[in-house]
Amino acid sequence: MNVYLDLSNLFNLFCIVQGLTTTALLFYRTESPANKWLAWLMAGLTLQVIDYFLTRSGVYWTHKWLYFLPLFYSWSFGPLLYTYVRARAGQAVSWPWWWYMPVLIQGLFYLILTIQPFDNKAWFWIHVHKPFTRYIDYYGASALLLYAIYRSRPFATDRWLRLLLNGLGIFYVIAVIEPLFNHAYLPDNWPKFYLTYQVLPLFVYALALIGLLYGRFGKTERLSSTLTQQPVTPHQRDQVLWAIQQQHLYKDPDLSLAALAKYIGESPNVVSRIINNGFNQSFNELINAYRIEEVKRRMAAGDADRVTILGIALEAGFASKTTFNRVFKETTGYTPKEYVKMSQITLRDDAAT
């Protein structure tokens, strides 16, 4: 079998090996739910890079029966990214039922094409897939990813993860425009999705590094399991409360578990155990509870008459309006505006009494 290899194909091959290796490690050497979702995302992305490699290396050309192998599951990337970010924040993972449907349709589409004779595949490529369905495939995946990025940002508690989501969002906005630009200005025989071909392997490699650096695989999981069995002392609880209450660390929108741990001189695993076992809450739940109480206190003091509700929320430590509205509604059962109106009515009734 003749395989054409240039620097681009060699890099794709390297990313494929890296992606498959990291996927296997994340699946079999960690108990973290977030890393399991990251492994699924890695697997889907790596399969797509395999398709790029088979195309650019000439394997498809010399083995035409391989055309339309079911390697494209790009409509799963958005839901998998969302569940990874949400699981990493310690939130329960739930998908709306309709998020399953696009990738099931996509998988069935390529599976049916795979078993077709080559003449049928060639006709379908020329008359249907090249002018129509590949664009539906591409823009459907892009739309799901952009929606997932929008839904994921409130759960991105780490600064590096927020930067990654922002960068990925910018990339996919550009990627949406790119085929239209290429179709208008490039020759017909040039690739219409050139940017995606070049950047996706880099993204796979970056995700593999994230999995290796932040997963810590079995060692961290075994350490965490051991730590969770140790009792929380009153001194440890007081340490966390001192940092959050007295030092007002909850007002820092960039506060992370690692930053809190560094401030009180403990490891992130120890602080996570203290919060989970000592307060029966996750890190995000504990910090957001203090932020919500600060907002409610200032609302009751009448600050909402002088400062916008969003301004109060940002000063209390919330990083965005979306996160604040969601957490406030989950905590109080009211939207911020409804709560302000209700508080004003209560105050008027008390004054009248």
UniProtKB/TrEMBL annotation:
Keywords: DNA-binding, Membrane, Transcription, Transcription regulation, Transmembrane, Transmembrane helix. The keyword Transcription applies. PROSITE patterns: HTH_ARAC_FAMILY_1, HTH_ARAC_FAMILY_2. Residues 239-342 form the HTH araC/xylS-type domain. The keyword Zinc does not apply. GO terms for molecular function: DNA-binding transcription factor activity; sequence-specific DNA binding. The chain crosses the membrane at residues 6-28, 37-54, 66-85, 97-115, 135-151, 163-181, 193-214. This is Helix-turn-helix transcriptional regulator. It comes from Spirosoma agri.
